[in-house]
Amino acid sequence: MIVHWQDIKGHSQIADSLKIMVAEDRLPHAMLFSGMAGVGKFLMGMAFASALLCEKKDGPCRHCPSCMALQNNVHPDFFVLEPEGKTVQMIKIEQIRQLQKEISLSAYLADKRVVLIRNADRMNENAANCLLKTLEEPVGNIFFILTADNEKKILPTVLSRCMKIYFSPLSDTLISDIMADQNIKRDKSEALAKLAGGSAEQALALYENGGMENRLAAFDFLKTIFSFTDEDIWTLADKLAASGREKFGEWLLYLQLFWRDMAALDGDAECMKLYNNDMKAELMQVKADWGITAVFAACKYVQEMQRRLLTNADVRLIAEKFIIDLRYLK
């Protein structure tokens, strides 16, 4: 797939800087695009790679042999590496070793080779150390573009070999515009944009997965958790486990956003900068049942559950412990 600079929403300053680098041929050997998930890092990496491989300096032109090959996903000098796995997705050392074999040859179609590593923060330590050798001693005219949601999870020695570019969260207006391009009604796109926390990917996922309904389910839970019986806990834990990790993670996100709004309202009852501003009256009522100490404790619990969801831990046990811990906060 070829991506043109004009295909990217937002981050115009970053795009302009990358264009200048390509035009002036002053390119770092490796770059790291970091920032929260769903803000356009990978898309920008694709646009940068498209420009690097194009035969014209102001590319991608979409017409040269290199652009045509990229558009048809058959470019011999472009390599994309992504995490693999059914439950926990990681970039493993076998993938890096295979990549090293493939890039050991000279460029075939373009005058350079480009490697785009998506979610480089999901490399295990062995894979990262293996990649480090290639970054330290590159063979031929080759460029690495790494993307990461959390650069702190990348090996420091790998980080030190990369030029870092940070991608900030997208504005609610821009996310709403992106969703409107997908023929999503403006009123719904605006509500989802506020919930997405700066991530267009998250906003679209919430829309496609019935996110508004899941938000209401999370709010109902907030209203009733302190009166949960043991049977209620087991029933909900079963339901959350059956919904799958992604849906459970989304439910946790909604709870997290509700608690953040409660904390904001505790400091300023007139606060309008809420994730769930359309439910402000309902939040004020529920906040009275929680108390700020319980809200802060709940935020810590949900962060721990989000981390555990990224492991192989049993989803039902995660849900069960979470609900029990919350029930006893009051």
From TrEMBL:
Superkingdom of origin organism: Bacteria
Any GO molecular function: DNA-directed DNA polymerase activity
Coiled-coil intervals, chain numbering: none
This protein's UniProt keywords: Nucleotidyltransferase, Transferase
UniProt enzyme class: transferase
Family matches, as Pfam families: DNA_pol3_delta2
Identification of the protein by name: DNA polymerase-3 subunit delta
Listed EC numbers: 2.7.7.7
